[in-house]
Design goal:
Two copies of one chain form a homodimer. Chain A is built from six helices and six strands, in the order ααβααββαβββα. With 132 residues, chain A is an alpha+beta fold. Chain A binds a DNA duplex (30 and 30 nucleotides) through helix 4.
DNA sequence: TCCATTAATGCAACAAATTTGTATTTGCAA
DNA sequence: TTGCAAATACAAATTTGTTGCATTAATGGA
């Protein structure tokens, strides 16, 4: 799916910043932080604009937030865009990359009265490249 | 277990700040952030002291770090103290509380070459109180 | 109990991520 | 093309967390 269609399907205006973010994410295949995305787009946009774009696209369900342990928020394309189902993420504690694991998640039993919106699992460890 | 014994068992000095943190955590039953704990202890200690206390107690295995989606690190009493094993956490998107779920975690299958250190699962949704 | 050692604390300054306010620009529909 | 709402840039503020250093306090031994 192209960036234009993604934005239109979610009733968002097509802007250079949003299209840039989506393009970077689609080619990277990993979850990226604001600073990582910014470095790919080389100073074309203000940081504030990135943050507002993330929020807008998250609210629209295009992106979803992923947090690991270094207080840097990352975003990944959501299931609606990739077609993948909810899956665990792997965080490499050496190179700090985040990979999507090709596996589906099972929700744990919740106490009565609790309801679920979203499920996130993060496996921390060392990736193949850093283990080599 | 009392705060005195917990600290002694982990070869840590018994200080007012550490005992305060542990007391708040034991009565709260939830994972708490620096600002949440500080508000419970009403300006008795410097923020730096909290952060250093967290780190010390985390390194000693008394506390463990939990990160959800609002870029605020929280700490919960570790298994060594509560007797519970590694478990999923529930994050209420309404009141932003973090609860420990009484259940154990199963590690997903990893691609070859990857190794695991730690496992974290966060269920996002609305808690009983906010659903009422 | 008193003392020395060593760790813990407070304070100031810093750093990085993210947010907010506002004026200007841009996308898009009429 | 024109107008309006939404997006953007820029500046400044907030918030979370860290680091260096001087002072204070906890603990074990004399």
């Amino acid at each position: 799916m192209d960036t234009f269609s993604i934005l239109r399907n979610h009733n968002l205006r097509r802007t250079a910043c949003r299209e840039g973010i989506l393009k970077v994410m689609m080619t990277s295949g990993k979850a990226l932080s604001e600073s990582e995305i910014r470095s790919h787009l080389m100073g074309n946009f203000d940081r504030t604009t990135f943050y507002r774009s993330f929020k807008t696209m998250e609210d629209s369900g295009i992106l979803h937030k992923i947090v690991v342990d270094d207080r840097m928020v990352r975003y990944g394309l959501s299931e609606a865009v990739t077609g993948k189902s909810s899956h665990p993420h792997f965080y490499c504690t050496t190179c700090h990359s985040v990979f999507c694991l090709d596996q589906s998640l099972v929700a744990p039993q919740l106490p009565s009265g609790f309801s679920t919106d979203d499920l996130e699992m993060i496996v921390k460890g060392v990736c193949k490249k850093c283990n080599a």
